Amino acid sequence: MKSIAVFCGASLGNDEQIISMAYNLGQTLAQQQIVLVYGAAKIGIMGQVAKGVTDAKGKTIGVIPEFLKTKEIVNEGLSELIVTTNMHDRKVIMYEKSDGFMIIPGGFGTMDELFEIATWGQLGLHTKPIGILNVNGYYDALITQCDTMVARGFLKQENRDAIVIDATIGGLLEKMNNFIPLPAPEWLKKEGL
């Protein structure tokens, strides 16, 4: 992977282990010459990831809707800044600019990004790896919920397994690099897509 979209919070939260991990993730991406694609903010967990990248002389691509840029949260030290008209266009551009997606702690916006990109993968609209960095058990309940969806017949096991999970940066990057995408859904094959 040459670029990874990192979906995460614009808030800093209150867990020092998560804050430290975010900065370390940025450092690791830069050291491995992986371009960070993210929401362009200088605040919160996303700001920590970007700071880690820029401190290690890595490359950052920030994507932000115009209405958020006016709130003075945009990181001015990015390698590239892309301004969109809305949140949906932001996600589309982040998707286009990335070879994979990493989800680290965040709130509703992060959940929206995770589930939209996971749904696109389930529908066969992309074959890029999706990884959850489960720092300090942050996503334990979400992982349990996904297992419940499988057990109750609302989610196929192969779609649940298509999201790789690890508690360490190195472990998750390795799983993402070794990711084997699911075959295209039958309905796509029938449609010739």
Which percent range fits the helix content? 40-55%
Give the number of DSSP strands: 7
The structural class is alpha/beta
- Could you give a short account of the major beta sheet? 7 strands, parallel
Order of helices and strands: EHEHEHEHEHEHHEHH
Distance between the termini: 25 Å
Please indicate the percent range of residues in DSSP E strands (runs of 2 or more).
15-25%
So how many helices?
9
Low-confidence stretches: none
Outline = globular
On the 0-100 scale, what is the average pLDDT? 93
Order of strands across the widest beta sheet? Answer: 4-3-2-1-5-6-7
Q: Roughly how many Å is the radius of gyration?
A: 16 Å
What is this structure's SSE topology?
Blueprint: E1 3-7, H1 16-31, E2 35-38, H2 44-55, E3 60-65, H3 66-69, E4 80-84, H4 87-96, E5 100-103, H5 108-122, E6 130-133, H6 140-151, H7 157-161, E7 163-166, H8 169-177, H9 186-191
Parallel strand pairs: 1-2, 1-5, 2-3, 3-4, 5-6, 6-7
Helix pairs in contact: 1-2
Summarize the structure in words.
Strand 1, helix 1 and strand 2 form a beta-alpha-beta unit. The chain starts with a strand and ends with a helix. Helix 1 runs parallel beside helix 2. It is 46% helix and 17% strand. It has helices at 16-31, 44-55, 66-69, 87-96, 108-122, 140-151, 157-161, 169-177, 186-191, and strands at residues 3-7, 35-38, 60-65, 80-84, 100-103, 130-133, 163-166. Strands 4-3-2-1-5-6-7 form a seven-stranded parallel sheet, sandwiched between helices.
